[in-house]
Structures are given as C-alpha cells and as structure tokens.
Amino acid sequence: xxxxxxxxxxxxxxxxxxxxxxxxxxxxxxxxxxxxxxxxxxxxxxxxxxxxxxxxxxxxxxxxxxxxxxxxxxxxxxxxxxxxxxxxxxxxxxxxxxxxxxxxxxxxxxxxxxxxxxxxxxxxxxxxxxxxxxxxxxxxxxxxxxxxxxxxxxxxxxxxxxxxxxxxxxxxxxxxxxxxxxxxxxxx
Length: 188
Ligand SMILES: [Zn+2]
Ligand SMILES: [Zn+2]
Prior knowledge:
Low-confidence stretches: none
Bound molecules: zinc ion
Radius of gyration: 25 Å
Structural class: alpha+beta
Mean pLDDT: 86
C-alpha cells in the first residue's frame, strides 16, 4: 500500500532531493463552486516533486483519478463520469517576478503551466481541486445526442415522448402569436 503523504514541502526537496507523494481526498462538490458537478467520489492523487532548472523553481508531475456525477446541460439529469489524468506543473517564486500593480501581465505559452508560489508548502489537496476543476467540461452532456427537455412541458425527451407539438417552425409561430396577442392587448 502506498503511504499517504499529502504536503509538498520545498525545503525537504532542497535538503533530501526529489520526493514522492500520494493521498486520497474527500472533496464536497460545493467546494468547487461548479453547478455542473453533482457528486464526487474519493480523489486519488500521486505526485513527484523535484527542483527545476531556474532558481527557486520546482517541478511537480502527478496523476489524479476520480469518479463523480455531472449534470447534463441539456436534460439536467446527473450522469456518471470518470477522470484519470496526468499533470505537469512548474512552481516559481512570486517574489522573483516583480511587477507594478497596474503593469499588464503577459503570459508566454511556456508560462501557462507555471504557478507562482509565496508559501514553500503546497498541499496536494489544492492540486486535486485544480485537477477536478479542469476536468469539468463547459457544457457537460450525458450523451452527444441528448434530446434535452421539452420547452413546453419540461419532459425529458430522452425518456418520454410528450404530446406537445413543437418544432423550430412552431416556436417561431409561437413567438409571432405572442406578438399578435400583445398587439391586440395594446389595441383594446
Ligand atoms: Zn442529457
Ligand atoms: Zn412537452
């Protein structure tokens, strides 16, 4: 069994060389502030950390693994998903990048995976939260062909065929009827 070790301490790497970490975290979906995440199982993390080439730089390579439920953006039903991914992060000290408050920060492509640190201690749990955040799609779909909800009665059209007559054409006629009704009301 892998020993739990969940805090990356840069001083330890300076002193003893590269370090390995592994831990499993319980994360409540609310912590992610994501409407799409309905449920989340235990999050397994492993990571290796070593010194980078730059002064004060540390490289962290790791894996994250978890399962959960996402809410479909069309039918609003939760559906299971599994994520297994690797990550490569570079930590650089924030103090080495002096910037005026109002100076525009230009990020070069190489800097995209750089995280600027102040504290020399990085909880693996923080990296877990980042990985979960990154794994959540903008518009989750239970199925590419999800039919969504009937805009008239709200029925889940993946499961039932409601009797509402509805097509793109009907919707347009509906909008037109609304306008006509408003005009009539305006007249009387
Ligand atoms: Zn759906
Ligand atoms: Zn309907």
